[in-house]
Design brief:
There is one protein chain. 46% of the residues lie in helices and 18% in strands. The protein has 193 residues and is α+β, with helices and mostly antiparallel strands. It has seven helices and five strands. It is globular.
């Protein structure tokens, strides 16, 4: 695929975002970053279901817990709280804590703007518990699908194999043709000479 080059303005904004996160004024952000490892992979096991877990961690802190870097277009108050709900960060927090067998998963949030601010945000106990409940339900559903799939494979019954994964092509009976909107064609054709 192709990528658009970053403009000088975009590069300047990214540099400002990096500086905000590393600023001496943001002591909590510095604590997450100092001595950390970046872009690491963790693998774990969900002991309830036996399902293997894997996650890619933005920041593995020197204190031994994962953290995630988030760029955010809004303010660091109500707008950030809304982003947690919109993007399911409570689920992500639960998944990463389960995968790494840790009990902390803070977010290093940096505003996506010129003259950005940065903060460290963590879910409170109630929000973290909600994420755990949603994660447990998802893992339980996935475990049932895996179990049904394995039984179906043993039997060789193609209908059972299809039924093992509800919502994954089981009800699709016709080929779907995707039509891109004109604006997408125009955008992509900029790269064709």
């Amino acid at each position: 695929g192709h990528k658009e080059q970053l403009s000088a303005n975009d590069i300047a904004m990214i540099e400002e975002m990096c500086a905000a996160a590393k600023s001496p004024a943001n002591k909590m952000c510095r604590t997450l970053l100092d001595g950390a490892q970046f872009e690491t992979v963790a693998e774990g096991l969900d002991y309830e279901t036996g399902i293997g877990l894997r996650c890619k961690i933005d920041i593995w802190t020197a204190e031994g817990f994962p953290a995630d870097l988030k760029s955010h277009s809004g303010d660091l108050g109500d707008s950030w709280d809304r982003a947690i709900m919109d993007y399911g960060y409570h689920f992500q927090s639960a998944f990463y804590r389960r995968c790494t067998s840790t009990d902390r998963f803070p977010f290093l949030v940096v505003q996506k703007s010129h003259q950005p601010d940065a903060m460290v945000a963590e879910l409170d106990d109630e929000e973290a518990a909600l994420g755990e409940k949603v994660l447990c339900a998802a893992l339980d559903r996935f475990a049932v699908c895996v179990e049904n799939h394995n039984k179906a494979l043993e039997s060789g019954d193609q209908d059972l194999i299809s039924a093992a994964w509800p919502g994954v092509g089981a009800s699709q009976s016709t080929h779907r043709v995707t039509r891109f909107p004109k604006w997408f064609y125009d955008k992509e054709l900029r790269y064709v000479t």
